[in-house]
Amino acid sequence: xxxxxxAGGLSAGSIYALVALALVIxxxxxxxxxxxxxxxxxxxxxxxxxxxxxxxxxxxxxxTVAIVFAFVLGYGFEAVILRRVRNPTHLSLLVVTLGFQLxxxxxxxxxxxxxxxxxxxxxxxxxxLRMGDVSxxxxxxxxxxxxxxxxxxVFAFFRFTKLGVAMQATQQDSxxxxxxxxxxxxxxxxxxxxxxxxxxxxxxxTAPLITLDTTLMWDPLLKxxxxxxxxxxxxxVGAVLGGYLLGLIENLFGAYISVEFKSAVAFLVIxxxxxxxxxxxxxxxxxxxx
Amino acid sequence: MGSTPDYxxxxxxxxxxxxxxxxxxxxxxxxxxxxVFPGYRIFxxxxxxxxxxxxxxxxxxxxxxxxxxxxxxxxxxxGAYTTVLMMTELGAxxxxxxxxxxxxxxxxxxxxxxxxxxxxxxxLAIVTLGFGLxxxxxxxxxxxxxxxxxxxxxxxxxxxxxxxxxxxxYYVIVGSALVLALCARNLSVTRVGRAFRAIRDSxxxxxxxxxDVAYYKTLSFALSAAFAGxxxxxxxxxxxxxxxxVFTFLLSLMFLAMVVFGGLGSIPGAVLGSIVMGYLNxxxxxxxELPLLGPALESFSSRFMSSAGLPxxxxxxxxxxxxxxxxxxxxxxxxxxxRLGAIVSGRSAGSSGPPADPxxxxxxxx
Lengths: 290, 366
What we know:
The structure holds two protein chains of two kinds. Chain A is mainly alpha-helical. Chain A has eleven helices and two strands; from the N terminus they run ααααββααααααα. A two-stranded antiparallel ribbon of chain A has the order 1-2. In chain A, helix 1 (2-30) runs parallel beside helix 5, helix 1 (2-30) packs antiparallel against helix 10 and helix 5 (138-160) runs antiparallel to helix 8 (184-206). Chain A is globular. Chain A starts with a helix and ends in a 14-residue tail after the last helix. By secondary structure, chain B is mainly α. Chain B has one domain: ABC transporter involved in vitamin B12 uptake, BtuC (Orthogonal Bundle), CATH 1.10.3470. Chain B contains 14 helices and four strands. Mean pLDDT of chain B is 81; it is low at 1-5, 9-13 and 348-366.
């Protein structure tokens, strides 16, 4: 029983970890949580869906196109909208991401309605793999596998490539990075592109689990926020750990305490963490940039 | 940098000489409106007035105090459910239940204000977002609150008068909105309002000047919540039925959108923004009925989008309005009004850019 619950938590946590990572990457550069993240990912998932159903492409073509689309969308959002905010403050940037979210949500609803669609995926949520006492769905295994590979790749990218290091430099001190020859504007745009790609992968893994509609990423986004807050909005590693932790906490709560209020746990977690450890479990002390 | 206009050079709803005349004109207009317009329009007015009340509350919190809330639909739900439960469970008359609903909501606002003492912008946004979602979740799962099926609102009376007709409701709702607008205005020009703005501009500076930051921040949350709670009670009165599905995250977003669009920190701006957004939100289900634009939209939808999704155009418009507001005129309608006034009164020294010129202040203004 416990092992099974933990396994469920792990695969739910993978999604939360991806969303949290996507949020944290851009949060570190702009100090603003990107509320449009979820909607950008949802639209990318719809792009894949349309390719597969209307244009009869294979899954991997659709997947690749959706990823490219997500990258362009993320880069474009930063370059066309976010960058042009005059006198950027926390509030105005936050409001812009919310407005973009609302506009994307409306556009997607206008185009695709409120219908719930089956999202075709190579592996299914109903096929079961047994490992001892624990059973995984093949989709669950794929989710855990793909997300961990992606996260390792992202961390390696930040650690070992020139562009990744430039991104970290921009996150730490954009002025100093610019003085040292980092094209910070382009780097920030690329950061949003990468973040959007990570979100899109989360959406592509969530859609086959539930069904695809325009509210696809609402729940994962809130959980992603909760995970990021839990681990620390300033630490990518912490956010990822927070994601897994939240998945486990949630499933344990659902199994042993109350299924009905399972999704309210995320809120409880946010409040408790912020009350006792405002900068998150794994973060160093949170310092506000002046 | 935008030019810094005279802080008070905008629509002066109730300041200086003639303010009473303006108030009187406003009163006459508001009293006669339901006599002129047909019944379904009055329903629209009621809806917009409820949005105005929330907008006034949002303006106190977001515009004046500089905090952010993505959970005001939750406050509205608390107000609505308290009002209705007071009436059904305790048999309280509506005129008593409504203010109690406001008070209870204020208490929740105070509680949500407590974490706000420690949290900066993004964290606060997430907490309030979670709060709004948690409220509807808890309501939706509790039999006492009627669960997802919602509650039917009992017939309300004000003394001997029945409050079931649109017109009777109009006077109650618009009357409340007017009184609350006057309260909000008085609040903003007195000591409390100045303390709020001092906190918005710099918390540290405000504390140095002797403003009790903790007290005023929680007060701002409580007041803002009370406005939303009263609006919720009035919404229950108007619709006769409440369910958690009404008070969604999208509604909270709409509430933030209206004060941003109207112009943060300006009461006339908040009122105007709320009226526009309230109208948009109500008409969303019937875009195809708009004159001229409606058929065009409909044919465009059926050709390129989907006709079933047409109501979503409202979200597209709302979202785009918010983004454009921040990009083009961060002070919203209020800022546009100031620019317009500056151009009309010729203070822009002959340079006549279009009123909505996004490229900043006209050259030549010192």
